[in-house]
From TrEMBL:
Residues 1-99 form the Dihydrodipicolinate reductase N-terminal domain. InterPro entries: DapB_C (IPR022663), DapB_N (IPR000846), DHDPR_bac (IPR023940), NAD(P)-bd_dom_sf (IPR036291). It holds the Pfam family DapB_N. Its EC number is 1.17.1.8. This is 4-hydroxy-tetrahydrodipicolinate reductase. (S)-2,3,4,5-tetrahydrodipicolinate binds at residues 132, 141-142. It is found in: Cytoplasm. It comes from Arenibacter certesii.
Amino acid sequence: MNIALFGYGKMGKMIEQIALNRNHNIVAKIDVDTTEINFSEIDVAIDFSMPNAAFNNIKMCMVNNIPLICGTTGWLEDYENAVRICKENNGAFIYASNFSLGVNLFFELNSYLAKMMGNLKQYQVSMEEIHHTQKLDAPSGTAITLAEGVINETDYSGWKLDTANANEIPITAKRINDTPGTHTVNYNSEVDSIEIKHTAHNREGFALGAVVAAEWILDKKGVFTMKDVLNLS
Ligand SMILES: NC(=O)C1=CN([C@@H]2O[C@H](COP(=O)(O)OP(=O)(O)OC[C@H]3O[C@@H](n4cnc5c(N)ncnc54)[C@H](O)[C@@H]3O)[C@@H](O)[C@H]2O)C=CC1
Ligand SMILES: O=C(O)C1=N[C@H](C(=O)O)C[C@H](O)C1
């Protein structure tokens, strides 16, 4: 499979390693200073770039009929536009706030726990995410997905960074050294608390998930999620 990398930073380099180990070719490394792209040799593209670059990269891939895996976070105000452009061009597209198997299992666990807690008003939910100091967006895309998972199963109406109103989920974002990504969901009552936590030890899980998603999407058309890729119910 001939892969184009959009964004050749920390994740782009990790994805390159994993893709080569799985016998794929990296035919383009597109970064901020790239002036020309030869789309004819690309089977699939993987974007881990920057919040202000992702939507343009998505448009470019869809118009040029290149299936795209997008892991870049912090651009979701344009997600519905990306879906529309994919459909208009009969393209193939996956965005996931987190491509690791562990976090996708954690998303399922989070929804299950939220469903159980939905009627137990004595518990207040809160979330914390910790990442490296170079991260541009806050809260993390993963924390937003976790909050959406809780909102779908409970009466919470939204989420907010730091201080939230009573019916909103407060999310704390911490930036500590080179932390790859730690997410905690906490339910607190007067008498006890319940906490679920996912800790990434490095970036390999994110990169492997993105390459697996690229292999999966190759013969497909439409907009998909990691739930489709991993066949999670
Ligand atoms: N969904 C997931 O599983 C994960 C998502 N991420 C997200 O991926 C993104 C990248 O993360 P890192 O690699 O750690 O960041 P990074 O800062 O190390 O790399 C980003 C790269 O994108 C390049 N870039 C800037 N403008 C560009 C453009 N117009 N076209 C192509 N490349 C451009 C930068 O020059 C840089 O080399 C972030 O949004 C991060 O939140 C990171 C890890 C996992
Ligand atoms: O920027 C990162 O590094 C990460 N970003 C993603 C996010 O915003 O959730 C996924 C992972 O936590 C690492």
